[in-house]
Amino acid sequence: MASLVKRIVSRLGEMRLPRVSVKPPATVLVVLLISVSIFLLAGGVYNVMMEPLVLLPTPSFPIFYYYGLQDQTWFESLEATILFVVGFAGVFVSYKSTRYAYKPRQAAMLLLIGMALLLVSFIGCEYTILLKRG
């Protein structure tokens, strides 16, 4: 019995297993990091823990914003998520414009589009905060 175990162990020691790479590509890590950042910045943890209303019902029309910076609705989180995604897209498009150094017209257009997206995101976030402050 002992010799059988020794033979099995020696055979297992001689076996070559294929190498498996478990390191994910850098693009996947960057997208995952940006997604987690957007989730945290948009108030995802607050939504999960506090379970706020989607909007505030009133007799005349629904209200989408709490008046005050301490609370938020699901609609506000969704709006913040969309604005942050637009902002990150603007940064990404602006970054991609640097790859067209020998095509200045295309680089300028991409940079202009990226800056416009970033500006829309910034103005949208500022307007949301202005609405919440009353």
Task: Write up this protein.
The chain starts with a helix and ends with a helix. It is 66% helix and 0% strand. It has one domain (26-133). The chain has helices spanning 2-14, 26-41, 44-50, 74-96, 104-133. The protein has 134 residues and is an all-alpha fold.
Per-chain topology:
Blueprint: H1 2-14, H2 26-41, H3 44-50, H4 74-96, H5 104-133
Helix pairs in contact: 2-4, 4-5
Characteristic key phrases:
single chain; 134 residues; mainly alpha; 5 helices; flat
Largest sheet: none
* Tally of discrete structural domains: 1
Shape: flat
Count the strands? Answer: 0
Number of separate helices: 5
Distance between the termini: 83 Å
Structural class: mainly alpha
Cα-based radius of gyration, to the nearest Å: 26 Å
One letter per element, helices H and strands E, the order comes to HHHHH
Question: What's the rounded overall pLDDT mean?
Answer: 88
Q: Report the helical percentage.
A: 55-70%
Low-confidence stretches: none
Strand content: under 5%
